[in-house]
Specification:
The protein has 430 residues and is of the alpha/beta class. The protein has 2 domains: 8-160, NAD(P)-binding Rossmann-like Domain (Rossmann fold); 161-196 and 225-344 and 372-416, Dihydrodipicolinate Reductase, domain 2, CATH 3.30.360. It is built from 12 helices and 15 strands. The strands form 2 sheets. The protein has a 9-stranded mixed beta sheet. Strands 3-2-1-4-5-6 form a 6-stranded parallel beta sheet, with helices on both faces. A hairpin with a 2-residue loop joins strand 12 and strand 13. It is globular, with a radius of gyration of 21 Å.
Length: 430
Amino acid sequence: MEFTRRQFLGATASAALVAGTMGRGTVFGANERIRVACVGIHGRGGSHIDGFSDLPDSEVVALCDVDAHVLEERAAELEKKTGKKPKRFRDMRDLMADKDIDAVSFATPNHWHSLGSVWACQAGKDVYVEKPLSHEVWEGRQLVAAAEKFNRVVMHGTQRRSERDWARAIQRLQEGVIGDIYMARALCFKNRDSIGTGEPKEPPAHLDWPLWQGPAKEEPYCDLYVHYNWHWFWNYGNGDLGNQGVHQMDVAIWGMNKGLPVRIASMGGRFGYTDQGETANTQICTFAYADGTMLVFEVRGRATNDEAGARIGNLFYGSNGYMVDGKFFDKNNKEIPDEKGPGEDITVGGNHYASFIRAVRSRKPEDNPAPARVGHIASAHCHLGNIAYRLGATLTFDPASEQFTGPDAAKANPLLKREYREGFEVPQLA
């Protein structure tokens, strides 16, 4: 099969085509399957393919990846599994023009999340997007606006929002089981080894390197980036704070029922080895809110103990006790049982993909457990923590304008938005 794709230099024309292209509508029959395209299918994207193809009311009809080898391999696997040959795309803009696709899931590197999702909204397609929602704070706000402007379901890949046990734990927190919550801690203790060093080289023939970079600053190819370690470079990723940590950040914000902070501080570094990675493997962030409550986030990337049994998890502290990963304790460290039990399954069997499909079908906001607005707040916390870390400063922030204030604002505000490559600009919608 010959791939449908546009040349990189035709980006402006492609973007014009995407704008205003609408899908087949939003009313689905009871027996009609939602047709999903998966974009970015090497690692996490494989889970998207399995997740949507395993559901009775959705099917994966198209795949997209800038790596031809990955694309062919995943397409062959899906055809063997389903008996149907999926459409294949190298350039996601060609996919957006296909009116037979209802929804798009994104598991690309972080720097593509917002732009790809905005394009999908413009094309009349609903969106499931991996965490973090954005690579920078500003573009996350534009995706929230896109979901609203184009009346699209946009769901963030923070799966705990679809887990019954966590939904019940958050409900108990907000019922006041441990009193007034004054602080939360979120933990990301994940031992990661050195990535070593690399040198600029010619990209492999099967990888469209300019398209892989997309909206990011143009750089020479280095094999350290592809296909996972881009997480540890500021141009493409957000460190473990924005990788694994955004899940726990989301739970902390959910439990405290918070928006954006008014003050942020962070320190850390890359300890235990010397390699080419840029992001911190050890990091502490503190966030203060207008009401005086606090969130403390800690990343540990080398060998470490846990915290009361939690390693990748959440702790909440209240006036009458505390909570560790869903277990509640009073001031005397005695566990507080849940008299109501686990409660109802508020999603679809705890399946985040199924929750998304239900929301696409129903068009009801209450059926989307992780809408773009919620994903933006969690992701923005990660970005704000990283900005404070990179500047080595305690920063003040205005949640309403989503701008830094105070003496370091001139250095911090430019880090809220990147300079996009021509043809790959995130449109200003908010």
